[in-house]
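Supplementary notes for students who missed Thursday's class. We covered one full example, reproduced here. Read the sequence, then the structure, then the short commentary at the end.
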Amino acid sequence: MNLFASVSEAFLLGFPALFSIVNPLAGAIIFNEVTAGRNHRDRLILARRVAVNSAAVILISLWAGSYILSFFGISLNALRLAGGLVVAARAYQMLTAPEAHEERKQAQAAQATAEAEVIPEDISSIAFFPLTLPFTTGPGTIAVAVALGTQHPASGAPLAAFFSGLSLAALAMALLIWIAYATADRLGALLGETGRRVVARLAAFILLGIGVQIMLSGAIPVLHQALHG
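Structure (token representation):
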């Protein structure tokens, strides 16, 4: 497999998973509610800062998450099984009870609004917490990123290609967050409540499949080793 194909494969693994868990379209609608009291310039600044912060959170989780856990003696296959299980469980919850997931996002939005009212002139006070973490890239996103990182090859060019593809997926995700949040008022009017729910269910179904695939990548080597002694 050539370098371009390896990078593309990693990108196509990472981007749908990140898009499904972050769901910038649904997030943009709530972001629009949170920043309703701010002028257009402030909203653009917030959208850019949230996108940059989100890229940092995802990239750190992708690159370092699996290695940090491995440092504590957790095997790669165990990481894949645990990470895939967390991703699949979160996706199933989003698929079967999207209203509960939306209510949790609304609660985070209310917290962000409260922070904004305390220090209305300080944009940076809410750009990272809670708008980036946990509102945009919360524990679910971190779990997905760490689980994706466990798929890496051992070393050499395949390893570099793998993380290059995932990094591109993270940057593409951050760009989508920026665009979606910067145009949040228009997206809210365009999608409406029904459109938002359709997007959320489709994203959850894709994420469920990715979670199962990550679990299989950890379970197959373990079963192979057990069967062959």
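Commentary. Residues 153 and 193 are 42 Å apart (CA to CA). The chain has ten helices and no strands. If anything here is unclear, bring it to office hours.
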